[in-house]
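Researcher: Can you fold this with adenosine-5'-triphosphate in place?
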Amino acid sequence: MRDFHSFGIDTCRRTAGRIKTTCPQCRETRRNKRDKSLSVNLDNGKFLCHHCGWKGYAPDETELRERRQKDEYRQRMHQLPSHFHRPVFDPTHLSLSEKTGHYLVLVRCLSESAIRYLQITEQEEFMPQSGEKENCICFNYFENGELVNTKFRSGQKHFKMVKDAELIPYNIDGILNTSECIVTEGELDAASFITIGRKDTVSVPSGANSNLAWLDRFIPTHFEDKKTVYIAVDEDSAGLKLREELVRRLGAERCRIVHFGPGCKDGNEHLVKYGADSLGICLAQAEEIPLEGVFTADDVSKELRALYENGMAGGAETGWPNFDKYCTLELQRLMIVSGRPGDGKSEWVDELVIRLCLRHEWKIAYFSPENMPIIYHHRKLIEKLTGLGFNPHIGMTEELYEQSVRFLTDNVCHILPGDEDYSIDTILSKARGLVVRRGIRILVIDPLNRIDQRLPQGQTELQYLSSLLNSLSRFATHYHCLVILVAHPRKMNRNPVTGITPCVEMYDIFGSSDFYNKADFGIVVERDDKKGMVRIHIDKVKFKHLGSPGEATFVYNVINGRYSPCEESTGDNPGPANTQFDNKNWIS
Ligand SMILES: Nc1ncnc2c1ncn2[C@@H]1O[C@H](COP(=O)(O)OP(=O)(O)OP(=O)(O)O)[C@@H](O)[C@H]1O
């Protein structure tokens, strides 16, 4: 329904088609107050008065909801998060000692104007590494001109930041509304580029750490408008990882890589060795990310050498020893999970992704209409995270509740497209947005049959499923994500003699053998209520460095939804044995 009412337009109780009605703008001034001079298209929302020329557009409910959400989002973005400690800026520390001034200007070759612009200060500060007070250069992190954090750096190269203060990019105000920006790996490198006149430079706050959670808040406000982003981080192995993640988050098509030449690992070293003009040349010669889809061994030479020297590493572990023994996980892969209805596919996938998130900081996006309303799903996830039932009681304190909500806010999002547009294109386009804005690493689609099946003309269902699986694999590869697809099996008939429904196999998945063929990991969840246990069949692990087929058994805890590893005893008492219960709180 479109909101014509807020424009004062009387739609004569019609909801579709075109109508003519009186114009609320000019009606009172007209001699014939009943003249229906306003044409209204109830379908597309447009209206026009043929008398006074008043025209406009009435949005529908979805648009209104989206606008409201966008406004709320913008407002939230403008408010600095309140749960962080905010230090107070003391301008009396701005006058630097002769020694520090000498170090910054003559040793590090920074211009005085850059030092002033960045409001670098100096003070004595207790440094935990030495256990005593040391004289420090203070790199102050401002946002909207307000001090948000400070990095203290002593002469002995001890570092610390303000306790409980927010991590934000250094000099973030410098890139507001600019068309380009430079991203460096340290404050001195940022100051080097500012020295050569590029105030549009930020530094990552925590060195070559590839967890870029601090970036999320700034993507829509400070990075989305950039045409070119120069990645000017260190050229060592940690810097390469950081570079890779920055490129993934900011988009390869607009990133250019700055190289500092032989013998220089970063921007400041280059400035010191070769001077400002030469650093400017490095920027001008920054290379584009190689043409997508065309590779030579030279394009991947560093990765190839690392593989040659170190061999294939296993993938990410889940912390379930009986599962990790067979299967470890990797980004850029597609996992398909099946099992009989109600056997616990969603429950098991939830725990799997929570474990990966806790251990490897892989943030999660769900498309899971079955888990609606979202708060029911949050409840289940909080039970798994805390190991406790979801209601206020002695263990589940208010503080733990708040911590859990914060964890979910930071690490889990749900994709629920407006207008119930559940097509694969829409879901993947939202997921793409979440890779950029929130750095998600896992996309869960649970279950497949809730995706709208839109068969283009002439396409068979088999071809449709094959192309859908291709889209998911492509998404996983391109956006460095683990994609997990939950798919139901065909109808499994009970054995009329034993009354038992047979266990599902990957080839039983409804619709196509491609589910088995195209999966990198094929998992079947089997709930055995008779024995009080759950079997996880690892039916396929495509790459041998990640594992091989096998089976892991678990006991399901109905209170907190956790899966505890166990062995299967087959003697007189068939059922779980040696169960490794774990009801600890995982968040702390
Ligand atoms: N091993 C188990 N023992 C007891 N209850 C379980 C077990 N596994 C799952 N459940 C419960 O069964 C219900 C269904 O679980 P879940 O939604 O994970 O199954 P599913 O296989 O994804 O189902 P569907 O095929 O309908 O999507 C949930 O309420 C869950 O808590």
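Model: Folded with adenosine-5'-triphosphate in place. The chain has three domains: 5-59, 91-288, 332-550.
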